[in-house]
Amino acid sequence: MDLNHLLYHHQLSIMRAASLPAASRAGAYRLVKHYQTRIDRLRHQMGVSSYPDWCGAAVPAGAVS
Questions:
Q1: Across the chain, what does the average pLDDT equal?
Q2: What does the pLDDT look like over 22-50, one tens digit per residue?
Q3: Contact assessment for residue 33 and residue 17, using Cβ atoms and an 8 Å cutoff
Q4: What DSSP state is assigned to residue 51?
Q5: CB proximity list for 44: less than 8 A, separation 6 or greater
Q6: Cα separation of 50 and 58, whole Å?
Q7: Cβ(65)–Cβ(35) under 8 Å?
Q8: Is the Cβ–Cβ distance between 42 and 50 less than 8 Å?
Q9: Residue 44, Cα to own-chain centre: how many angstroms?
């Protein structure tokens, strides 16, 4: 998957998890974490940070976001 595809599925998983009853969210948020891990790994491989330099919240490539 490319980065945009991962970001898309990550956002969908966040919205789905948020719409579930509180008792069911833990399992749904594991999928959110799964996508975040894949996004972080891909960004590290690409050598890019999580945020652009101009936003002031730059996270070095490979750092946990």
A1: 85
A2: 888 888 999 999 999 999 999 999 988 77
A3: no
A4: S
A5: 61, 62
A6: 7
A7: no
A8: no
A9: 13
C-alpha span between 57 and 26 (Å, rounded): 28
Residue type, 62: G
Evaluate whether 65 touches 40 at the Cβ level (below 8 Å): yes
What are the residues whose beta carbons fall under 8 Å from the beta carbon of 53, sequence distance 6 or more? none
Structure tokens at 13: 């998983």
Cβ atoms of residues 7 and 39 within 8 Å = yes
Distance, in Å, from the CA atom of 20 to the CA atom of 26, rounded to the nearest integer, reads: 10
Residue type, 54: W
Q: Identity (one letter) of the amino acid at 18?
A: A
The pTM of the full predicted model, rounded to 2 decimals, is 0.74
